[in-house]
Amino acid sequence: MSQNDQVINPLDRRTALAGAGVAAAALTLAAACSSDDSSSSSSGKSSAAAAGTTGAQATAPLTSTSDVPVGGGVIVGDTVVTQSTAGNFSGFSTTCTHAGCKVNKVENGLIECPCHGSTFHLDGTVAHGPATRPLDSHPVKVQDGNIVRA
Protein backbone atom coordinates (compact mmCIF):
# COMPACT_ATOMS: atom_id res chain seq x y z
CA MET A 1 0.00 0.00 0.00
CA SER A 2 1.30 3.41 -0.86
CA GLN A 3 1.18 6.38 1.46
CA ASN A 4 -1.57 7.94 -0.69
CA ASP A 5 -3.81 4.87 -0.16
CA GLN A 6 -3.46 5.23 3.60
CA VAL A 7 -4.51 8.89 3.44
CA ILE A 8 -7.43 8.32 1.03
CA ASN A 9 -8.92 5.18 2.64
CA PRO A 10 -9.63 6.71 6.08
CA LEU A 11 -11.30 9.66 4.36
CA ASP A 12 -13.31 7.29 2.19
CA ARG A 13 -14.50 5.43 5.30
CA ARG A 14 -15.37 8.68 7.01
CA THR A 15 -17.23 9.88 3.95
CA ALA A 16 -19.13 6.58 3.71
CA LEU A 17 -20.03 6.66 7.40
CA ALA A 18 -21.09 10.29 7.19
CA GLY A 19 -23.19 9.50 4.12
CA ALA A 20 -24.82 6.58 5.91
CA GLY A 21 -25.57 8.81 8.89
CA VAL A 22 -27.13 11.45 6.67
CA ALA A 23 -29.20 8.79 4.87
CA ALA A 24 -30.39 7.34 8.19
CA ALA A 25 -31.34 10.80 9.44
CA ALA A 26 -33.20 11.52 6.20
CA LEU A 27 -35.14 8.26 6.46
CA THR A 28 -36.01 8.98 10.08
CA LEU A 29 -37.19 12.48 9.18
CA ALA A 30 -39.21 11.17 6.24
CA ALA A 31 -40.87 8.59 8.48
CA ALA A 32 -41.70 11.25 11.08
CA CYS A 33 -43.11 13.64 8.47
CA SER A 34 -45.35 11.02 6.93
CA SER A 35 -47.04 10.11 10.21
CA ASP A 36 -50.12 7.93 10.19
CA ASP A 37 -53.13 10.07 9.31
CA SER A 38 -55.62 7.39 10.32
CA SER A 39 -57.17 9.82 12.81
CA SER A 40 -58.50 11.85 9.88
CA SER A 41 -61.53 10.56 8.08
CA SER A 42 -61.39 9.83 4.40
CA SER A 43 -63.49 12.92 3.73
CA GLY A 44 -60.47 15.11 4.50
CA LYS A 45 -61.59 16.39 7.90
CA SER A 46 -58.90 17.34 10.37
CA SER A 47 -58.24 15.02 13.29
CA ALA A 48 -59.95 17.55 15.59
CA ALA A 49 -63.05 17.49 13.42
CA ALA A 50 -62.88 13.71 13.17
CA ALA A 51 -62.74 13.53 16.95
CA GLY A 52 -65.90 15.64 17.13
CA THR A 53 -64.39 18.86 18.50
CA THR A 54 -65.02 22.27 17.03
CA GLY A 55 -62.77 25.31 17.01
CA ALA A 56 -64.81 26.87 19.83
CA GLN A 57 -64.49 23.76 21.98
CA ALA A 58 -60.78 23.47 21.23
CA THR A 59 -60.12 27.02 22.54
CA ALA A 60 -59.59 26.72 26.27
CA PRO A 61 -60.66 29.72 28.33
CA LEU A 62 -57.88 31.89 29.68
CA THR A 63 -60.02 33.12 32.55
CA SER A 64 -63.56 34.09 33.44
CA THR A 65 -64.76 37.62 32.73
CA SER A 66 -65.65 37.89 36.42
CA ASP A 67 -61.99 37.29 37.37
CA VAL A 68 -60.78 40.40 35.51
CA PRO A 69 -61.50 43.55 37.54
CA VAL A 70 -62.68 46.70 35.79
CA GLY A 71 -59.68 49.05 35.72
CA GLY A 72 -57.30 46.13 36.26
CA GLY A 73 -56.21 42.82 34.90
CA VAL A 74 -54.86 39.35 35.51
CA ILE A 75 -51.88 37.41 34.23
CA VAL A 76 -52.70 34.00 32.81
CA GLY A 77 -49.77 32.01 31.42
CA ASP A 78 -48.15 34.14 28.72
CA THR A 79 -51.07 36.57 28.47
CA VAL A 80 -52.08 39.66 30.42
CA VAL A 81 -55.86 40.11 30.25
CA THR A 82 -57.10 43.60 31.11
CA GLN A 83 -60.49 45.29 31.42
CA SER A 84 -59.92 49.02 31.06
CA THR A 85 -63.64 49.83 31.20
CA ALA A 86 -66.62 47.58 31.86
CA GLY A 87 -66.81 44.97 29.10
CA ASN A 88 -63.69 46.22 27.26
CA PHE A 89 -61.23 43.30 27.47
CA SER A 90 -57.75 43.27 25.93
CA GLY A 91 -54.90 40.75 25.85
CA PHE A 92 -51.16 41.32 25.73
CA SER A 93 -47.95 39.35 25.88
CA THR A 94 -46.33 39.08 29.30
CA THR A 95 -42.94 39.76 27.69
CA CYS A 96 -41.70 43.28 28.44
CA THR A 97 -40.56 45.05 25.30
CA HIS A 98 -37.52 46.52 27.05
CA ALA A 99 -35.39 43.48 27.88
CA GLY A 100 -37.70 40.48 27.55
CA CYS A 101 -38.48 39.99 31.24
CA LYS A 102 -41.95 38.80 32.18
CA VAL A 103 -44.36 41.33 33.62
CA ASN A 104 -45.57 40.02 36.95
CA LYS A 105 -48.29 42.26 38.30
CA VAL A 106 -51.32 44.34 37.35
CA GLU A 107 -51.88 46.92 40.06
CA ASN A 108 -53.33 50.42 40.31
CA GLY A 109 -54.29 50.37 36.63
CA LEU A 110 -50.74 49.51 35.47
CA ILE A 111 -49.00 46.38 34.19
CA GLU A 112 -45.64 46.16 35.94
CA CYS A 113 -42.30 44.64 34.94
CA PRO A 114 -40.07 43.77 37.90
CA CYS A 115 -36.74 43.84 36.07
CA HIS A 116 -36.16 47.49 35.23
CA GLY A 117 -39.33 49.24 36.37
CA SER A 118 -41.21 49.59 33.09
CA THR A 119 -44.95 50.00 33.47
CA PHE A 120 -47.70 49.77 30.88
CA HIS A 121 -51.23 51.14 30.74
CA LEU A 122 -54.13 48.69 30.54
CA ASP A 123 -54.16 49.20 26.75
CA GLY A 124 -50.55 47.93 26.57
CA THR A 125 -48.95 51.31 25.87
CA VAL A 126 -45.90 52.44 27.83
CA ALA A 127 -46.66 54.39 30.99
CA HIS A 128 -43.08 54.57 32.24
CA GLY A 129 -39.80 53.35 30.66
CA PRO A 130 -37.20 52.16 30.07
CA ALA A 131 -39.49 50.27 27.65
CA THR A 132 -40.28 52.39 24.59
CA ARG A 133 -42.67 50.06 22.74
CA PRO A 134 -46.10 48.82 23.83
CA LEU A 135 -46.67 45.22 24.85
CA ASP A 136 -47.39 42.88 21.95
CA SER A 137 -51.08 42.22 21.46
CA HIS A 138 -52.60 38.81 22.23
CA PRO A 139 -56.12 39.33 20.85
CA VAL A 140 -58.87 37.98 23.10
CA LYS A 141 -62.66 37.77 22.97
CA VAL A 142 -65.51 36.99 25.31
CA GLN A 143 -67.14 33.61 24.79
CA ASP A 144 -69.78 32.22 27.16
CA GLY A 145 -68.61 34.40 30.06
CA ASN A 146 -64.97 33.47 29.52
CA ILE A 147 -61.99 35.20 27.95
CA VAL A 148 -60.48 33.14 25.11
CA ARG A 149 -57.86 33.87 22.50
CA ALA A 150 -59.38 35.44 19.41
TrEMBL record:
Annotated PROSITE patterns: RIESKE, TAT
InterPro entries from the UniProt entry: Rieske_2Fe-2S, Rieske_2Fe-2S_sf, Rieske_Fe-S_prot, Rieske_Fe-S_prot_C, TAT_signal
Name the UniProt record assigns to this protein: Cytochrome bc1 complex Rieske iron-sulfur subunit
Low complexity: compositionally biased ranges: 37-60
Obligatory cofactor(s): [2Fe-2S] cluster
Function of the molecule: Iron-sulfur subunit of the cytochrome bc1 complex, an essential component of the respiratory electron transport chain required for ATP synthesis. The bc1 complex catalyzes the oxidation of menaquinol and the reduction of cytochrome c in the respiratory chain. The bc1 complex operates through a Q-cycle mechanism that couples electron transfer to generation of the proton gradient that drives ATP synthesis.
Record region (Disordered): 37-69
Source species of the chain: Nocardia jiangxiensis
Domain annotation Rieske: ranges: 59-149
Entry coiled-coil feature ranges: none
UniProtKB keywords: 2Fe-2S, Disulfide bond, Iron, Iron-sulfur, Metal-binding
